[in-house]
């Protein structure tokens, strides 16, 4: 799609990174990760007993998950970067912003 915006053919041999820079389009996957990270920090810093906070921190029923259920939970991605105490890390905005770069980093 980006090549068609610039009217480029594959045989022109332009790098994808150069094309993205020229079109100024954002990477959808990276943007989705940033929104998830920011929402998690915002939700944890809210005061009171809101259902979004309660559902996110809820441990769930004991035992094995049923067949066909996803292995990872929504917070498992956050735990990989911020550790098991990601809730305390989200309370500190400066630390949370530093960890965001590690979470949204592209590639291995």
Our Rg estimate from Cα atoms comes to 19 Å
Tell me how many strands there are. 0
Largest sheet, in brief, is: none
Indicate the structural class. Answer: mainly alpha
Overall mean confidence score, pLDDT: 81
Helix content: 55-70%
Layout of secondary structure:
Blueprint (H helix, E strand, L loop, with lengths): L1 H5 L9 H8 L4 H18 L5 H7 L18 H7 L3 H6 L1 H12 L4
Helix pairs in contact: 3-7, 5-7
Features:
single chain; 108 residues; mainly alpha; elongated; Endonuclease-reverse transcriptase
Give an account of the 3D structure.
- The chain is mainly alpha-helical and 108 residues long.
- The protein has one domain.
- Helices cover 58% and strands 0% of the residues.
- Helix 3 (28-45) runs antiparallel to helix 7 (93-104).
- The protein is elongated, with a radius of gyration of 19 Å.
- The protein starts with a helix and ends with a helix.
- This is Endonuclease-reverse transcriptase.
């Amino acid at each position: 799609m980006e090549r068609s915006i610039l009217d480029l053919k594959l045989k022109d041999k332009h790098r994808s990174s150069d094309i993205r820079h020229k079109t100024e389009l954002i990477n959808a996957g990276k943007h989705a990760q940033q929104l998830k990270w920011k929402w998690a920090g915002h939700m944890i810093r809210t005061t009171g007993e809101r259902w979004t906070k309660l559902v996110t921190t809820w441990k769930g029923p004991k035992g094995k998950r049923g067949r066909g259920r996803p292995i990872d939970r929504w917070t498992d991605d956050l735990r990989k970067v911020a550790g098991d105490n990601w809730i305390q890390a989200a309370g500190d905005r400066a630390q949370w912003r530093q960890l965001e770069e590690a979470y949204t980093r592209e590639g291995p």
